[in-house]
Amino acid sequence: MSGLGLGIDAGGTCTRWALAAPDGAIVAEGEQAGLSALQMGSSDGRAKVRASFAALAASVLVHGQAQAVRAGLTGFGGDGALLRQWLAAPLGLPVESVLLSSDIDIAYLASFAPGEGYLVYAGTGSIGAWIDADGVSHRAGGRGVILDDGGGGFWIAREALRHIWRNEDEEPGRWRSSPLARAVFAQIGGDDWALSRQFMYGQERGEVGRLALAVAASAEADPVAGAILKEAGRELARLARALTMRFGARPVVLAGRAAALHPLIVNTMRAELPDTISLTQTTARAHHAAARLAATATVVPAQAGTQVPHVATD
Questions:
Q1: Which of 113-117, 133-137, 309-313 has the lowest mean pLDDT?
Q2: Residue 198 dihedral angles phi and psi, to the nearest 5°
């Protein structure tokens, strides 16, 4: 098939792609390991990104030739010349056919037209976003997992491990009576500190973020896990309030895999927001929206003075 648009939503935990026909129909899609533009800061990271793009291109070409690509990458800061080359070459496209932006810009357009509302996104990290009517992007949070990203998967994982190991400082072996600790250590592979240390400091942040699944799975049996998830909801509500304070009241959409881990997250977030602010949780697929943007081939990355259209999702 030809005349297709390729959309890519690359996050720290998972990278998803989709091919869309000019009429918006999704004709193929797939996923692979996560990647981040932040990996471009090291030679090893650059090699992994290039290999990921090559593998993605091979999967896509089985289904057809894209005419244009719209890709959203977590950690993208605007300097994407090398990334565009590495993505265009294995797809057999000119560099000019590849448009890159933040993954959050893509996620926003999957829910709102510019100016309509605020997106709060919780994946491996977290961020609040608004693209105004002039196409200018505004943010709250999204400062990275070391500094903040409260309510994201990495933050949830870090809070759980911090609690577990503080308890072990006071009472070695206490983890055996904790459903949260047992679930976390089962995912890590054991209760030895060396395993936790390697897990937190020796892997990509997306892999660490996956530990949030164990926290959510133990929330009904362990009040500490439930408390961590409630605090995640409060952190995400803070992002929405920050945007509302700066730009006025608008509807809020909550998106991202971490946000959907457990109802405690969205329910707590809703309770923390004023009744006058509408909150909706969405499972809109950003890679579908990106593919449809690419299929129309009329979009440029959001910047001052640029109109960025909203694309309907399924």
A1: 309-313
A2: -65, -40
